[in-house]
Specification:
Chain lengths: ~350, ~90
């Protein structure tokens, strides 16, 4: 089935999505995803998730794009399969499973949509493709070019970052532009980092607070792609430039690239989260992680910005831990330290 | 003819750009470039600016200066398929 064909009536696509082979199901869902983009995105996602619901069981599917750009690619691994056909498949499978377990065990969330949505990943997308993305219904990973970037499945926080984009789509649905987009990116970095810390059973003082550690090849002067602890210090190399992330609102200005700097200004909120987590201590997913999750799930709206996030995380921490609790004070101070007043 | 090309976004959020001067290309490359641009120009009035709003996609800006100017802003999921070859070509120059 051609993945971009819109000539097939929706009811046939839906039938294929429900009753077809796994390969045809995925192709039909991809087509529905693209054709639904012009309609209500959130409604479309809810509609699609009902087609993928598997009633509370973890279910993962891995496809191989074989260096082409067609999604989802060839089915190469399914839930329960013991032997992975490649390192790419093994990593995508394991890390998406850890992310599923994290959301379920820590927050009681049943997959991306909280309704048991199947976790679909495509590996080896494109030729020397140095990126990973969430396309609205699945995760997609490139191998990297081997010159600057390594494969994008190798970092658990990248996998969790992409899955969290799915969670955000189903909850706050933050618009991917300017500050709401930076908040969207921030949420993915936060839960990417928390999944990594949970996986390693690390308390805040042992965590590296890096995003995408080891993603650069040895030829590049860079530890990681971003640093929540010290935004702007993750890399500095003539081939990729210097990490542009600021850690304070005084450095914010409206720009056109990167959808208004969504991966740049996320550093400000990332740093606020780091400061508050360090102040609160312990395992970050237990207290501050819960505050951020409830805020994302229940409080933020599509156009929310950092000021809204600061106010809502302050409110939620008051509800969870008490007004003027040490947690609430830490959160207020952290946002203030990055220039966001509550 | 000059083409200014910028790629931004992606998971890493790194912006790369280049300027391609067609006079400095080999005759084969010039021929390919002309073919790509002919495809794009034929399509350019349909919808030069498209953005899927999808997370972590690459975003592209292309400014062609060839007597007259035209600009295209798109991302990798929203782009017209006719642009793919041109963008593949330009990405090798980054």
């Amino acid at each position: 089935m051609h993945t971009h064909c819109f000539a097939i009536p929706p009811y046939i696509l839906e039938h294929i999505a429900k009753k077809g082979t796994k390969k045809d199901q995925a192709a039909a869902l991809n087509t529905i995803s693209i054709s639904e983009q012009t309609r209500g995105r959130r409604e479309a996602l809810k509609h699609m998730s009902s087609l993928l619901a598997v009633s509370g069981k973890k279910e993962r599917i891995i496809y191989d794009a074989k260096h082409r750009r067609f999604l989802p690619g060839e089915l190469i691994m399914s839930e329960g399969q013991r032997k992975a056909p490649s390192v790419f498949a093994r990593e995508a499978y394991q890390y998406s499973g850890t992310t599923y377990d994290f959301y379920k065990e820590i927050f009681g969330r049943n997959s991306i949509d909280d309704q048991g949505m199947r976790l679909d990943s495509t590996v080896r997308y494109g030729y020397k493709y140095s990126n990973a993305f969430w396309n609205g219904s699945q995760m997609v990973y490139g191998d990297g070019d081997g010159r600057i970037f390594r494969r994008f499945t190798r970092a658990i926080d990248i996998v969790a970052h992409e899955l969290t984009h799915g969670v955000t789509d189903f909850e706050a649905s933050l618009v991917y532009q300017d500050l709401s987009g930076a908040l969207n990116e921030h949420m993915s970095d936060v839960f990417g980092s928390l999944v990594k810390q949970y996986h390693k059973k690390q308390k805040v003082d042992k965590a590296d607070w890096l995003i995408g550690k080891g993603m650069f090849t040895s030829k590049i002067n860079g530890d990681a792609i971003r640093s929540m602890k010290a935004p702007g210090t993750a890399y500095d190399d003539p081939r990729v430039g210097k990490d542009p992330q600021p850690s304070h609102m005084k450095d914010y200005k409206k720009i056109s690239e990167d959808n208004g700097g969504v991966h740049i200004y996320s550093g400000i909120a990332n740093h606020a989260f780091y400061l508050a987590a360090m102040d609160i201590g312990g395992c970050a997913w237990e207290k501050i992680g819960k505050v951020w999750y409830i805020t994302l799930r229940d409080k933020l709206r599509p156009t929310s910005d950092f000021k809204d996030a600061a106010k809502k995380t302050f409110d939620v921490s008051g509800e969870l831990f008490g007004i003027s609790s040490t947690e609430q004070i830490a959160i207020k101070r952290a946002w203030s330290d990055v220039g966001v007043k509550i | 003819m000059k083409i200014k090309f910028e790629r931004s976004g992606g998971f890493a959020g790194i912006t790369n750009s280049c300027v391609v001067n067609s006079e400095q290309l080999s005759s084969d490359e010039q021929k390919h470039l002309q073919e790509f641009l002919r495809d794009v120009e034929n399509k350019k009035t349909e919808n030069p600016s498209l953005n899927s709003g999808r997370n972590d996609c690459f975003q592209y800006k292309i400014l062609v200066e060839d007597g007259k100017k035209f600009a295209i802003t798109t991302d990798e999921l929203a782009m017209d398929p006719n642009l793919r070859s041109l963008i593949d070509f330009l990405e090798t120059r980054l």
